[in-house]
Amino acid sequence: MAVQSPKLFRFSTWGPWIEVLAVFAWGVLLLKYWVSGELNILIHPNFFALTNGTGVFLILLACYKGAQLLHQQWRSRRVRNRGTRTATAATDHITLFPPGWSATILLVTALLGFLISPRVFASDKAMMRNVNDFLPVTQSQPQAFRTARKPEERSLIDWVRTLTVYPEPDAYTGQQVNVQGFVIHLPDLPEEYFLISRFVITCCAADAYPVGLPVKLSQSRSAYPPDTWLEIQGEMSTEVLGDQRQLTIVANSIQEIPEPRNPYEY
Known about the structure:
Elements: H1 11-36, H2 48-82, H3 101-115, H4 123-128, H5 156-165, E1 176-184, E2 193-200, E3 209-216, E4 229-241, E5 244-256
């Protein structure tokens, strides 16, 4: 008499629990990004409330479905103990993958999110995305821009927005500047120049784009390695770089600073 070995995995038994775990893991992962501050480098702050609300909703939904599954299993066990059978309505689904694959992929992806921390974009990504001193044409273009800030109080993105609307560099010659950003060594710039840059996020990290301004030094840029965060004080000047007149920061003071908790501009 042949004896059938029990199957170690039955989707009808474990599949619903994998789905519950996947939903629960994604809810916890979204809240973990918020608590750890990593949400700053993933999406715009305007979407923090939506993301956190989604995380809480997913956790509550997983708890509800888990309690529902426990109740169903308890009822099934009770029926079997009574020796009765109930007919279960079969439902046919059309799926591209075998049952359980989609939930398993979601669960594995969430677990990888716990193991792999998101990284801040750096100079290599900025050069791949064509860092510029103007806002990209794919972004909203201000027709006018007025700020009450003094020139030395403007951030790097304030300077880029101003330059996008009023692009004549001579208009800013001699104005004081105090900006923070990370270093990029563009191969097209002479040895005594580097680019001070920041990434700007409009929605999420997928649409982040780099902006930056050239900085003129009194020495070789090799003293400031790429991706070093700096606070630069100086004054604006017009320089001809690559046959183009460009607004350039003539540095008077350069101080290395730690990477900000929130390294992006908005």
